[in-house]
Write a structure and sequence with these properties.
Number of helices of chain A: 14
Strand content of chain A: 15-25%
CATH topology of the largest domain in chain A: Peroxisomal Thiolase, Chain A, domain 1
Oligomer: homodimer
Distance between the termini of chain A: 22 Å
Number of domains of chain A: 2
Largest interface: A-B, 64 and 64 residues
Largest sheet of chain A: 10 strands, mixed
Radius of gyration of chain A: 19 Å
Structural class of chain A: alpha/beta
Number of strands of chain A: 12
Chain lengths: 390, 390
C-alpha cells in the first residue's frame, strides 16, 4: 500500500467534567470548531468527518450522531460524509484511525475527527450498566460482572503473578492526579497522595474509588490533512507515523492470560512497524488508564517495561516527567476525565500539544515522538497511534 | 487517488423475521460464515471486519459488537481489526463503504463486511422509540414526532406538490410484496393487492401499516477482495465500481425541500462519477423503502425518473421486472424485512445475487449493473453503491 503521509494541523478540546449545562451536540461542536480554528482553515475545505462515540443511544437516546455533529457544525450544507465508529472505550482512537486512513489513502484531503460522550444525564447506576455494555452481555454482565469487577480480577491476578503491590496501583493514580493538576482542561486538578487512594471506598476489591476513572462529559477533535500540505496551515505539524488496531475475545475468561492484553501487543507491533520506530524512541505516551491496573498492563504490553515490571516502574517514577517515558501527562483518564468516545481523541490532542511544545507546565522537554493507546472493554479492541513532530 | 478495483466474492444472509430463537451473535456469525463459505476462502485469510449496526446498545444492551462478532467467528485469535460503524438505517451501507475503501486503498486484501440487528427482544413501543433515535431527539422526537410521522409529512407534501396518489403509494408495497413472494429469505412472502394496503390501519396519516417496513431480526454479510485476485475464489466476481456517501440536516424541518433527499442526489452523483456509469446503465436497484413514500423519493432522487414522477412510474410498472429498472427485487425493506443494521448489506447481497444470475424466480434478465441506496433517518445519511458483473 502506497500511502500519503498524514499530519494533525489542529486540535480542540472542551473542559471535561460533569457539565450539566452542556448538551452532547454543544460539546461536539465546541471541540470541532476549536480544532478548525486552531488549524486556521475555512470550514468549507472540510471533506469528511469521523466521530467516535460509544453509547449516545443509551446516554442521551440519540443514535446517528455523526450526522448530528456535521449538521450542527454547518457541514451538512455541503453534504460531507459523516461516519460514526464505535468500539466502546476505543471509539475515539478508532475514529482517528478511520480519518487517518481516509487521508492516507487519498480519498479525502481535510478530515475532522471528533469524539464525544455525554454521560451525566443518566444515574450513576445506569451509567455503570451502560459502561458494562462494552463487555460480553451474555457471558459476563448478565452473570453479575461489572466493568470494574473484571478489572479487579486482572489486578488480583497481576498482584499474584508478579508481586505488584496495592501501593503501586495507588501510585498510578497519584502520578496522574499530579499530572492533571497541571492541565487546565482536566476534570480533577488536585494532587493526591497514596493514602487518599488507599483509604477511598472499595469499588471491586482490590480496586478503590481512586483506582477508577470518573464518568465525564466532554469532547475532543483534531483536523488531519496530507503532510505535504500541512505547513500551509500549521507552524508545527505533527505527523501520524503509525496506526495499529487489533481485537481480542470480548469476554475476559476466554483469554489465555488476563494479565496481558494481546490486542495491545499486536496493535503496538503494527503501529511501530508502520512508523519504523521502537519503544525507546517514545518520549510521551497517553495510555488507557480507566483503572490503575490498566496503565500497568499498558506500559508492559506496549513494550516500555517487561511483563510484571509495570508497577515497580511506576513506583520508581519511570513513567513520570523525569522517567523513561512520560505517561499520561494530561492526567490520563483518571484525572483528565473519561468521556468515553472522546477519550481516544483527547489522547491525540495531548500528544500533539506535547510535540508542538505547547503543554506549558506539563511540557515534556524535547518531546519528539508520542504514542496513544486506546482500549475498548477489557481489551477486545485496542488502537495504537504513533506521532512525530514533523 | 489511485485505488485498487474491488470485488465481492461471497455473500451470506440469514432468514429475516421475528427470530425469537436466534440471538444477535448467532445471526451475525451465521451470515458471516455463509459469506466466507460462499467465497470458498479459508477464514485465516480474513484481514479485517466491518460491522453495520444501529442500536444493539438499546435493543440488546450490547455495544462493542464488531469485536463480539469477530470473537465468536473465531477471528479474535488472529487479532484482526473489527470496526462497527453506525448511521441509523444507513449503517450497513456505511460498513460496506468502509470495507470497500479498506480494500481499494490497499490497506487490507480480504475483508468481511457484515450487518446485523436484533429488534424483537424489546416491545413494539420501545422498538419505535429506538428507531426514532435516528432523528433529531431535541427538535423532533422530544416534541412528539415519530419516525413514521416524519415520513407522513414527506408523503403529504409529495402528494400536494406532485399529485402523487394514495394508490401509487400502495403500489410500491404491492410490487415489493410481489417480489418478496419470490425470495425464500424474505420476511413476508405473500402477495397483496392495493386494497390490503388501503384498508390497513393508519400509522401516521396518510401512511398505513402496509406502507411501513416491519421490525425484523436478521443479518447479512459479504466478502470483499481486490478484483485482480477475485477469480481465484469466485466464478462470477461482482465489482463494486462506485461508492458515494453524503449527509444532510438531521432534522427534516431544516431542509429546503422535504420532497427531495439531497443526500441521495449527492451520494448518487459521487457513486456514478466514480463508476463512470449513468442511470440508464442500471438494470436492478435496491432502494431504501422503509416507507412506501421513501421508494418514490429514491427513484426520483437517484435520477431514474424526474422529480414528482416516481409514483406514476411505479403505477405504470416501470420499477417492476419488466420496467425501466427493476427496483427492490428482494422484496425491499417492506417485504424482505428491515433488520436495520443488516439492511444495507442485504441490499448488496441481492444485487450481487442478481448480477451473478443466481436470483432464480426473481432473476432480472441479463442484469449487468446494479445499485444500492441505503438511508439513515429521514435522509441525514445516504450511501449509494454501484455494482457491475466483472
Amino acid at each position: 500500500m502506497s500511502m500519503r503521509r498524514v499530519a494533525v494541523i489542529g486540535t480542540g478540546i472542551t473542559e471535561f467534567g460533569e457539565l450539566w449545562d452542556s448538551s452532547f451536540r454543544k460539546l461536539g461542536i465546541g471541540a470541532g470548531l476549536a480544532a478548525v480554528e486552531d488549524a486556521r482553515i475555512s470550514a468549507d475545505l472540510i471533506d469528511a468527518m469521523y466521530v467516535g462515540n460509544m453509547s449516545a443511544g443509551r446516554f442521551i437516546r440519540q443514535e446517528h450522531v455523526a450526522a448530528l455533529i456535521a449538521d450542527y457544525s454547518g457541514l451538512a450544507r455541503d453534504h460531507i460524509p459523516a461516519t460514526r465508529v464505535e468500539a466502546a472505550g476505543a471509539s475515539g482512537g478508532l475514529a482517528l484511525r478511520q480519518g487517518f486512513l481516509a487521508v492516507a489513502s487519498g480519498l479525502h484531503d481535510i478530515v475532522v475527527v471528533g469524539g464525544a460522550e455525554k454521560m451525566t444525564d443518566v444515574s450513576d447506576m445506569e451509567s455503570s450498566m451502560i459502561q458494562s455494555s462494552a463487555d460480553d452481555q451474555e457471558w459476563e454482565t448478565e452473570l453479575g460482572a461489572t466493568f470494574a469487577s473484571l478489572h479487579a480480577l486482572i489486578a488480583t491476578r497481576h498482584m499474584h503473578n508478579y508481586g505488584t503491590t496495592r501501593e503501586q496501583l495507588a501510585d498510578v493514580a497519584v502520578k496522574n492526579h499530579s499530572h492533571g493538576s497541571l492541565n487546565p482542561k482536566a476534570q480533577f486538578r488536585r494532587k493526591i497522595d497514596r493514602n487518599v487512594v488507599l483509604k477511598s471506598p472499595i469499588v471491586a476489591s482490590p480496586l478503590r474509588m481512586f483506582d477508577c476513572a470518573p464518568s465525564s462529559d466532554g469532547a475532543a477533535a483534531v483536523v488531519l490533512c496530507p503532510l505535504d500540505a500541512a505547513r500551509k496551515y500549521a507552524e508545527t505539524p505533527v505527523e501520524i507515523t503509525g496506526s495499529g488496531q487489533a481485537s481480542d475475545t470480548l469476554a475476559l475468561h476466554n483469554r489465555k492470560d488476563i494479565c496481558t492484553m494481546g490486542a495491545t501487543k499486536v496493535a503496538a507491533e503494527r503501529a511501530f512497524k508502520m512508523a519504523e520506530l521502537a519503544q525507546k524512541d517514545v518520549d510521551v505516551a497517553e495510555v488507557h488508564d480507566n483503572f490503575t491496573i490498566s496503565e500497568i498492563l499498558a506500559v508492559e504490553d506496549l513494550g516500555f517495561f517487561p511483563k510484571g515490571q509495570g508497577g515497580k516502574a511506576t513506583e520508581e517514577g519511570r513513567t513520570s516527567f523525569e522517567g523513561d517515558v512520560a505517561v499520561n501527562t494530561s492526567g490520563g483518564l483518571k484525572a483528565r476525565g473519561d468521556p468515553i468516545g472522546a477519550t481516544g481523541v483527547a489522547q491525540a490532542v495531548e500528544i500533539v500539544t506535547q510535540l508542538r511544545g505547547k503543554a506549558d507546565k506539563r511540557q515534556v522537554k524535547d518531546a519528539d515522538v508520542g504514542l496513544t493507546q486506546n482500549v475498548g472493554g477489557t481489551g477486545a479492541t485496542v488502537v495504537v497511534h504513533i506521532f512525530r513532530r514533523a
